[in-house]
Amino acid sequence: MFRRARELGPPILVPLAWTFVTAAHLEVVTEYTLFIAHVVMAVLLVGFAATGYADMREGVLRTWWLLIAVGSVVTLCGVVGLWLEPTNPALTAVALFGWMLLPAVGFVDTRRRVTRGGWIYAVGTAGCLLGAALYAVGPTWGTRTAAVGGLVLVGLGQTAGIVDAAIRY
Q1: Taking burial as the number of CB atoms within 10 A of a residue's CB, which of 6, 7, 48, 137 is the most buried?
Q2: Structural domain for 95, as ranges
């Protein structure tokens, strides 16, 4: 059961997470709701890392296991940042930019190792990097449209990569 959940969970959870983050930026959900989402995500990531370690010790799976382990810490930064009063923007930025950029490392490694579908991982990498850059410059443009566009790019790029991996491998 855990193996199946580890295989099929990410293609559902990745787009859900980015949709949720985008909704938070649009003020559709509250900061407290975002805090709860981070707690849930931290628990899922730690559980995924703990139960998946035996199956993820070699090759590209090892890269992804390391990213999940680091991502657990990044997510915990978000938990603490959202828990503090007032919210700690440095810790929440670690969580946000960490999850924008960590998967790009995995996509680069995956693209290097696969024989088919490498272009999908290139698209995933580009979505992560361009989305993070667009999000970062958003405040200088005085509009949240750029930030939301950046989140959408990241979400689409990461979703493409994880869905391909779940279907193909």
Answers
A1: 48
A2: 2-168
Mean pLDDT of 96-110: 98
pLDDT in the model for residue 74: 98
- Kindly state the DSSP code that residue 169 receives in the 8-state scheme: -
**DSSP-based three-state secondary structure for 116:** coil
Whether 166 contacts 8, CB under 8 Å: yes
Question: DSSP secondary-structure letter at 27?
Answer: T
- The number of folded domains in the chain is 1
Average pLDDT value for residue range 82-88: 96
Q: Which residues contact 42 (CB under 8 A, 6 or more apart)?
A: 72, 75, 76, 79
For position 5, what pLDDT does the model report?
67
Q: Whole-angstrom Cα distance, residue 117 to residue 137?
A: 31
Q: Considering Cα of 106, then 108, then 112, then 114, what sign does the dihedral take?
A: positive
Task: Name residue, tokens 């580009």.
Answer: 126
Ramachandran area for residue 122 (φ above 0: left; ψ -120 to 50: alpha; else beta): alpha
